[in-house]
Amino acid sequence: MSDKKERPDNVAYKDGDGWVAGILPYGSNVGAPAIRPDDITSWKSQSVSKANRSMEAKFNELKEEYQKLVREYQWSELVYTSKFNFEPLIGETYHLYIGRDGNPFLSLISPSEWNMECIGSFTLNSDSKWIKI
User: In terms of CB atoms within 10 Å, which of 20, 44, 60, 62 comes out highest?
Assistant: First the structure.
């Protein structure tokens, strides 16, 4: 016979100073409750759905901001490439018309004062961008 104390096969032990069955953080015998991981499927599904909604909202916000920036750029480009013979002042309102030659021109005269095809009215802001009114 050996000098070692008999131990049952269905209990976890470690020889020496290690752990013994009574202080393990989990059951080590057949009668112990089963260790089952938490079912986090619904949590993952809800979290993914919430994250997707948040990112979609942010994407739509950025997309709208981008489209606004493109429109501002296009209006500014149109006004800057039009014909005018004066230096526009910041904050003043100017009117863009189609000339008889088909080219756009900028004027101080409002659409109610004459009969020309008006593209729109614009204000020059402090960033030198033309803002359509």
Answer: 20
Query: What does the pLDDT look like over 39-64, one tens digit per residue?
Result: 888 999 999 999 999 999 999 999 99
The C-alpha R_g of the chain, in whole angstroms, comes to 39
Number of H helices, E strands in the chain: 1, 4
Count of domains in the chain?
A: 1
Give the residue numbers spanning the domain of 65.
38-132
Is 20 inside any structural domain? no
Q: Which two tokens stand for residue 81?
A: 């490439």
Asked whether residue 100 carries a pLDDT value surpassing 60, the answer given is yes
Q: Is the overall model pTM greater than 0.90, yes or no?
A: no
CB 91 within 8 A of CB 82: no
Lookup result for tokens 């803002």:
131
Residue 125 lies in a domain: yes
Domain contains 122? yes
**How crowded is residue 119: how many other Cβ atoms within 10 Å of its Cβ?**
19
